[in-house]
Amino acid sequence: MAKYDNEFKKEIAELVHNKIKSRSEIKREYGIAPSTVIGWEKQFFGELKKRDDLSPQELEIIKLKKLLKEKEEEVDILKKATAIFSRNLR
Length: 90
Description:
Oligomer: single chain
Helix content: over 70%
Number of helices: 4
């Protein structure tokens, strides 16, 4: 069983709590069980809100954060592609 320091736990909990990444994304990327992440969220943020308890504004913020993350990833990919193609032109 892997041991994680509190800084790492809080970082992961914040990613999920702020709806930047889902628990399933964390599981895929880091191999950390969703139940573990839930425990970390409770540890750092107290009891969790259910999606049904969120206001329309909170749901909109979640949607916009996800969209922003997708667009940032697209920009990163395009920057890398530009660098690769510009090297080939020299």
